[in-house]
Design a protein that fits this description.
alpha+beta; Heat Shock Protein 90; 5-stranded antiparallel beta sheet; globular
């Protein structure tokens, strides 16, 4: 069993690049094909951006990656200024949903949690 890897950072757009880089590294470590690696990087960008929008000034985002036998589970947690999860009828949510196999969002006890699941695809040999 692989241990989870967690990254914590201030809810600031300057930290999105760091989150994308760690996402790409974790996707490679989970042996995801190259096209899925890029999808994970972009999905984390979208999810972290949504968390930043929800977080109050000075809030901290926790980004957790867990390798599974099937692929990669990703959780984004942040304090939320609202009682509602991000709307699912936006372009951002549509992009996020297209990049991963499963995505959900909840706000509980003042915390936004976005859960993303990526199932390892098959590589195509040329």
């Amino acid at each position: 069993m692989t241990a989870a890897v967690t990254l914590s950072f201030e809810a600031d757009t300057r930290n999105v690049a760091l989150a994308r880089t760690v996402a790409a590294t974790m996707a490679a470590r989970a042996d995801l094909p190259l096209d899925q690696l890029e999808d994970v990087r972009l999905a984390v960008d979208e999810a972290v951006s949504q968390a930043i929008l929800a977080a109050p000034r000075g809030g901290v985002i926790d980004l957790e990656f867990l390798e599974t036998p099937a692929g990669l589970d990703i959780t984004v947690r942040a304090p939320s200024s609202t009682l509602d999860p991000p709307p699912t009828d936006t372009f951002s949510w549509m992009v996020l949903s297209a990049l991963v196999d499963r995505v959900s969002a909840v706000v509980e006890d003042g915390q936004l949690r976005l859960d993303l699941q990526v199932v390892r695809g098959l590589t195509v040999d040329a």
